Amino acid sequence: MTQSANRIDLREVEAFLFDLDGVITRTAGAHAAAWKRLFDDYLQQRARIEGVIFIPFDPIDDYQDYVDGRPREAGVRNFLEARGIVLPLGNPDDPPEMETLNGLGNQKDHYFLRELARDGVEVCEGARHFVLDARTRGVRTAIVSSSQNCAAVLEAAGLTQAFDARVDGLDRRRLDLHGKPDPDIYLEAAKRLGTPPRRAVVFEDAIVGVQAGRAGRFRLIVGIGRGAHAGALKAHDADIVVGDLRELLLENDAHGFRRRK
To answer: Which of 14, 102, 116, 222 has its Cβ near the most Cβ atoms within 10 Å?
Structure first.
């Protein structure tokens, strides 16, 4: 297949695999707010008990460095270990007040669902049109997310029927799949679509997602990002980086898409 930064021949591509947050929807703000409330409350409590200085969670840098795109319990572990705090994993059904990775993760989930109920879901309109256009051309589509709330977000966005398959955080736990940057959940999505990785394209906004796509040997990795983040995605081997999927044009004559001029 002739491949450049501008064009893919859809005659040699069967499926598009999309990350959810930051690619199809914009819920990063709700996620970051939920993480901040969780970690700030927890760190303040520990600071009072231990008599140390409270350093709040940074919803931009800490979010991107430790939790973005990762399984929930991994995000809790990564951030707390960066602060010198080690907690046991616990069990998936640990109550929110339990001081385990799963317990804190469940508390974060509670905060996120409250944000979702209050503010709803913002859909990336360029992505919506891109997905629907791809489907009219016979491309199979899957949504791939580390979130256990993926189905709820898709329903709130009115996009449940826009994807032929969904692999999310619930599937990851049920099937004992590794989270990003391992490629397991993307490989599972390709399997459900009946598509080999070499004939599928991954669309991701997180560095760990780009790494997962590369590790899975997918045909092409499209990064979604702007500014410094776009540079970071390119540096981590995204083949194409755009600010929005509206910058990519599906073509009838060439059966492919290329970047809009």
So the answer is: 222
